[in-house]
Structure formats: structure tokens, C-alpha cells
Amino acid sequence: MQGLDLYYMLELVPVILGYVPITIGIAAASMVLALALAVLLAVERVVKVPVLDWFVVFFISFFRGTPLLVQLFLFYYGLPQVLSFLTQINGVTAAILGLTLHFSAYMAESIRAAITGVDRSQWEAAHSVGMTQAQMMRRIILPQAARVASPTLVNYFIDMIKGTSLAFTLGVTEMMGAAQKEAASSFLYFEAFLVVAVIYWIMVEILSQGQKRLETSLNKAYAR
Amino acid sequence: MISIRGLTKRFDATTVLNAIDLDIADGERVVIIGPSGTGKSTLLRCLNFLDRPQSGQIRIGDLHVNAEKATKADILSLQRSTAFVFQNYALFANKTAKENIMEALVTVQKIPEAEAEQRALSVLAETGLSDKADSYPTSLSGGQQQRVGIGRAMALQSDLMLFDEPTSALDPEWVSEVLDLMRRVAERKQTMLIVTHEMQFAKEIADRVVFMDEGRIVESAPPDELFGAPKDERLKSFLRRINK
What we know:
Chain B: Keywords: ATP-binding, Nucleotide-binding, Transport. By secondary structure, chain A is mostly helical.
């Protein structure tokens, strides 16, 4: 067994770190969009708008039921063949679109479960003071559901950050893409992928710390 | 003036409210008594459509709702002209005592936030909970939570306040502070419809007591008369049972 080329790894760290913004950018944009879409999907699943509900059930089923990589290929390589106006779609856009749709399906299910878990008395109280359905959702039900759903949602965000690595298959040079290129020219695959693995790991650990703070602040209304 | 005609509610095959007729004058305090499971709470819940009645007419002031044809807008109007005090308090768990009272003033009645806050603070003062303004429901006792619940309903300044067994879920030690607060609400000539098992309180506060049994109003009279000279056999036997 050969020793690790530590000097090469140290050199590689700033190179890969240079691609952290693009990875975080894709993940953050996808998270914001997925969360917004997931809330809409979840509320629809609870309220059950006729006809629209079938579409939502179908949407969630499809995007949970097929691999993320397949979805990304479908958007990036497949769709432009059918919808000609999409020929301009770039890798980053396709990655954000894929991650958004994929994770919104998962998030919708956990948000829906959290909404239905909010005590019935909260719905009745909101109705009794004359709130509309939308006011009740926004002001009373969703904030309480957020507290229940947040640990799961942060987990999905962690998954999403790691999922951005698939964007390199769409020709996007993010952290994984950069590591791949470096490894291909140096032939030091183990070193290159170990560096990128550790950087992902550290990012996720930082996020987990943030999760703890988020939970503390969401729990403040419930602490005795 | 509140007028209820032919209000009927069925759960599957069971008729819980059987063509209820009831008039309540402005400022009148009506207490509903009767055995458990006779539809007292359901009557209250049907008046603001927490439970949807199958048929009947509800008039509150100028608002007229036909239960069979009630639209979303009708239901919202009913809910906005009534205020409800729940047996289990049902305070908004994500809001402080003050925010619980402010919430509907701001989102429903569109009162500017600063003014709503002033009103909430003055309601809290009336309920004796000024020091709990920033406390969340979980840190309040049952009695304190119910006083906030009553405060939330008071602040709405609605045409009709509905009380659904407001002391039934309370530990005995908290009952009197809640009843005291209800007495103070009554002094303001607020129209009140109260379901309760507190007979002494009913005698004292009610302009009129309504006895319900098996989904119907059996007897309705001022408290002296209803408790002093009950006419119907079912009422007599109910009063004997509770006075044992």
C-alpha cells in the first residue's frame, strides 16, 4: 500500500473550497424553492382541493418513487428533446429544478403529517375567532407544524447538500465536479475524493449545529 | 336579538339536536343545563358551525343563516359575530397570553397592532393576568389558561359569547376564579349562552335557564322558577339527582 499524498491533499483543499459557494448556492436555492412548494403541496393534501388533489398525489408519488439521478437526467437530457424551448436549460438550473421537485415531494409528506398532528382544538379555536382557512394555516397551524417537522426538514436539507454532488453528472463544476477533474489529471483518486468527502462532512456538521439552535428557538413556546 | 329556529344536528343515525327553537334577547344571560350527552355542547358548537347543523335558521342581529344552504361566507360571518370559550381552553399554543388575545383583533378585525396590544393588555388586567402577558399557555395553570380563553373571547366584543362547560376541565381549586371572571363579563351586559354543571352559578347569574334532554329544550324559565317550581318530570328527576 502506498502512503497518502498529504501535500497534494493540502493543496487541493483551497481548490475544492473555491467550489463551496456553488454547492451551497444550488442547495440553498433548491431548499427555499422545495420548502415553498412542499408547504403548498402539504396544505393541499390536508385541505384536498378536488381534481388538484389527484395531481398532487401523482406528483408526490412520482418524485418519491423515482431516483434523483434519473430525474436529473430526465430534466437535463430528456426534456429539451420534447420541449424545444428548454434547449437552453443549463446544468445548474436543471439541478435546482430536479432537487426542488424531488425533495419537495418528501418534505410535503412530513409537513402534511405535522399539520395533521396539530391538535384539533387549535383548528377550532382559530375558526371560533373568525379566521379564514388561510389565516388559520399561516398564523396558527403551520407555525406549530414547523416545530414538529423541522428536524426532518433539516435532514432533507442535509440530504440535499449531498445530493448536489449529482449535479456534476450534468456538467456542473461544483465540489464533486472539481474533485473529479482534479483526480482525473493527478490520478490521485483516493486523495481527491477523501478531501471532498471531508469537506461535505464538515458542512453537514456545521448545519447540524444550526439545527440544534433552530429547535431551541422553535421550542421556546413549549418549554415550561 | 338572537333567534334560533328548528336547529337540527345528526351524527350518522343519531339525532343530537332535534329542531331546537331558542330566542335570546340582547344582553340576556342564558344558562343551559341538562344530563350529559343531551346536545348542550353540540347546540353551542352548531351556532358557530364548529359542528355543521343539517337544518335550521340562525339569526344574530342582521345576520341570517340557513343551515342547509350556509356558504363559507355565512359561516365566517357567524364565527365573527360569536365568541367561543372552550372546555379545554384551546389557547393558541404558539402564542403568548397577550398574543392569544391580540391575534383575531389584528388578523380578523384588522385593528392596528399597537391598538390591539393596548386592548389585549387592558383585557389581561381585567382577567387579573397582567403579569402573565408574555407567558405561553404551557406555563399557565388551568385556571389562568381559561381566564386567557375568556379574555380572548371578551376582546372580540362579539354579539354573543358562547361558553362550553368552561370549568369542567379545571381542578376544583381554579373553578372560582373562572366563575368570578364570568360574573364580571355578565356585569357588562354581554349576551351570554353558557353550558355548565355549576348549578349555584346558574341560579345566580342567569336571566333564564334552559333545561335540555335528548336533543330537545324541555323547559325554559327564570332560575327561581325553573329550580323552585320545575314542571317537567325529567327536569324534576334531573334536579333530584344533582341535589343528592
